Amino acid sequence: MSPVWGRAVVAGLWVLTAVILQVVVLSRLPLPGATPDLVLVVVAGWALRRGSVEGGIIGFAAGLLVGLAPPAVGPLGLTAVVLCVVGYLVGLVADDGQRSSLTPLVVVAVAGVVSVTLFAGLAVIIGTPPVTWSELARQFPGQVLYTVLLALVVLPALSASIRRFEPSTSRW
């Protein structure tokens, strides 16, 4: 299998698995603050590893799947736009330069805050019930905590699965 097709299959499996786990398991956990967002972590991890273009594409595809998965909340495409933007922005941050082991965790945590903020901003723009600043402030700590905890497990596994089809590259 060519590296491009192999990477596409790996991306599809990661996104599909993340969406299923998000909808079936994580969204039903009675956790304080925010809901853990596995799909966001997968999109951010892919963007960190592969760059802004693939991050945006994976984010858009993952967002469409989340928007189509029952129980879909909000207008179709809202999650796709948010994850596309987040994937693209995270991919811009990814570089081949110096990187500590904490950098991916910080980037993914910031991506979690950016996604919550984008959802709130788009809700205001399209006229869905707006989110108050106090609600956002309550969601940020939980979003950061859950995103970092998921990233500790997901990022190494995601990186290893991508590396399988590109043994000559090493980004992190």
Distance between the termini: 24 Å
> Which H/E pattern describes the elements?
HHHHHH
* Number of helices, where a helix is a run of at least 4 consecutive DSSP H or I residues: 6
Instruction: Give me the count of strands.
Output: 0
Q: Roughly what is the average pLDDT, rounded to an integer? A: 86
Shape: globular
Low-pLDDT segments, ≥5 res: none
- In terms of DSSP E residues, the strand content is under 5%
Question: Total domains, how many?
Answer: 1
Query: What is the level 1 CATH name?
Result: Mainly Alpha
Question: How would you describe this protein?
Answer:
By secondary structure, the protein is an all-alpha fold. It has a single domain (3-163), classed as Arp2/3 complex 21 kDa subunit ARPC3. The protein is 72% helix and 0% strand. It is built from six helices and no strands. The chain has helices at 3-24, 38-50, 52-68, 78-93, 103-126, 133-163. Helix 1 (3-24) packs parallel to helix 3 (52-68), helix 2 (38-50) runs parallel beside helix 4 (78-93) and helix 2 (38-50) crosses helix 6 (133-163). The longest helix is centred in the last third of the chain and has 31 residues, at 133-163. The two termini are 24 Å apart.
Layout of helices and strands, plus pairs?
Layout: H1 3-24, H2 38-50, H3 52-68, H4 78-93, H5 103-126, H6 133-163
What are the main properties of this structure?
172 residues; 0% strand; 72% helix; 6 helices; Arp2/3 complex 21 kDa subunit ARPC3; mainly alpha; single chain
Compact summary:
The protein has helices spanning 3-24, 38-50, 52-68, 78-93, 103-126, 133-163. The chain is mostly helical and 172 residues long. Helix 4 runs antiparallel to helix 5.
